[in-house]
Amino acid sequence: METKKNLDELEREGYFQLVVSGDRMKAELLVKRPLSTEELQGYENLSQFLRRKGIVYGLQDVIERDEGILQRTGTYLLAEGTRPQKGKDGEVRLLFAEEIQRELRENEEGRVDFYSFLRVPQVTPGDLLAELVPPEEGVPGKDIFGKEIPASLGKPAKIVVGKNVELSEDGKGARAKIAGRPVVVGKAISVLPLFEVEGNVGVHTGNLSFVGSILVRGNVESDFAVEAEGDVEVWGNVEAAKVVAGGNVRVRGGIFGANRGSVRAGGSLQAKVVENASIEVGGEVIVERAILHSQIAAKENVILRGNPGAIIGGVIKAGNLVWARTIGSSIGTRTEIIVGVDPVLHEEHKCLQETIQKLQSEIQDAEKIFQLLAIKQQAGKGFDFRAKEILLKAKKAYDLAHEKKGFCETRLAELEELLGSREGKVLVEEKVYPQVRITIGRFTYVVRDEIQYVSFREENKEVVLGTFERPKLAKR
User: Fold this and answer.
1) In whole angstroms, what is the distance from residue 45 CA to residue 85 CA?
2) 58, 64, 67, 72: CA torsion to nearest 10
3) Which of 150, 398, 426, 450 could cross-link with 366 by S-S, CB 3.0 to 4.6 Å?
4) Secondary element (H or E) of residue 393
């Protein structure tokens, strides 16, 4: 049997080059000078060539299917290893529902019951709240020379316990120490009991601050505050008061802020009326009757489905959707709707712009001082102690302002990308009036004439109008 020559000779003469990646995971053939069939007859085939090089794993089909690749210029993948797969990280498996389960339901008249709770998660002492899921082994890989590459084990998890929760002896479980509502605050698992106020929050109670949830069976009177790490529920009205909740806020009556009342919630807000108040929530704002001359910021949606379901005056900001029966009024009340942006990021963007302008002004003031002192020096007057002190102070202010301005501009650029990454929509079920200003993302539309049954969305860098489309109510 005739022994064929090694392909190494052709490689040395520059006909082709075998390229092996630094991590030994890939081999490619770079053909520089193609060979004829006759020229290749006396040489070994590629698979023999690779085996002599020690490349034995991950050989590609191109070797067996088309050994004529040496007859064409180009780069061909000959072998590719298998990379190791890291094991799945361990996790903390919660054994309770984190959120209050709610569902918005329509009756036969098409009106929504905004106050039907389905279930509030509850636990009793000794209940198991969470357990550890151990990390998994990874899948080893192999390089093209057949060497196994070990896989790393997944990262183990750890249960973090908060108030009224204790770890099991082996650290693999968490149990409730008291009866109450289980929640996750940050990464810590806690059990928060409920605090109830039989009447009003006012002079007979003072301000309330509680680690759990608060139920007020009356009103929250003007100039008082209610703060809870969990939910706040008020059976009456919230007057010119302050309500802060880590969870949801539910007001069976109205919120009448008198331009100084506010509600802040990590979750959602439900109320019948919001008037002259400041609202900021991490979820939805759901109002039955009207929002009047208020400042609303919701990370998700602002929805008005009752009668009249009106938004009149003020500024409404929502991350996703504003849905109302009417927006504005027949007398042209200025009303602003902003959707498609996270209200928190939108406010940060505004503050950064103002800060940059202020810092630029400080820089210009310092530059004026530099110029005046330079003129004084050129006039041959020299620098006295006072002038040197002024120069030193101006230079410190200049350098600090420049540094802060750089940080602000970097963050502003990041926000510019984030603010344009979400879709937003405004739905008007009946009528939108003139002097309503609608901003979706970065683009604004000012309503000049009364429009009925309309939707607003952003398309091709402008706000476009369409017909009203009733969205499906989400189960919450």
Assistant:
1) 33
2) -60
3) 398
4) helix 385-419
Distance of alpha carbon 346 from alpha carbon 358, whole angstroms: 19
The span from the CA of 376 to the CA of 366, in Å, is 15
Domain boundaries, the chain: 8-80, 91-137+152-190, 193-283, 345-419
Closest CA to 256 of 272, 235, 244: 272
Q: Which helix (H) or strand (E) holds 174?
A: strand 173-176
Phi/psi of residue 215, each to 5°? -115, 120
What is the per-residue pLDDT across 94-120, written as a single tens digit (0 to 9) for each?
A: 998 877 554 555 656 666 544 333 344
What lies within 8 Å, CB to CB, of 383 at 6+ separation is: 373, 376, 377, 391
Contacting residues for 308 by C-beta, under 8 A, at least 6 apart: 289, 290, 325, 326
Question: What are residue 145's phi and psi, to 5 degrees?
Answer: -95, 5
Which residue's entry shows tokens 């539309």? Answer: 445
Angstrom distance (rounded) from CA 428 to CA 471: 12
Q: Quick one: DSSP state of residue 473?
A: P
Closest C-alpha among 426, 465, 431 to residue 308: 431
pLDDT in tens, 217-256: 999 999 999 988 889 999 999 999 999 999 999 999 999 9
Place of tokens 């109510």: 473
**Whether 468 contacts 427, CB under 8 Å:** yes
pLDDT in tens, 162-182: 989 999 988 899 999 987 888
Q: What secondary structure letter does DSSP report for 313?
A: E
What size, in residues, is the chain? 476
266 Cβ contact list (under 8 Å, min separation 6): 245, 246, 247, 281, 282, 283
CA distances from 124 to 10, 176, 440 (A): 79, 7, 47
Q: Which two tokens stand for residue 98?
A: 């984190």
Q: What average pLDDT does this structure show over 325-344?
A: 89
CA dist 216 and 199 (Å) reads 7
Helices of type H across 273-384:
343-378
Strands 112-113 and 105-106 come out as antiparallel
- pTM beyond 0.70, yes or no: no
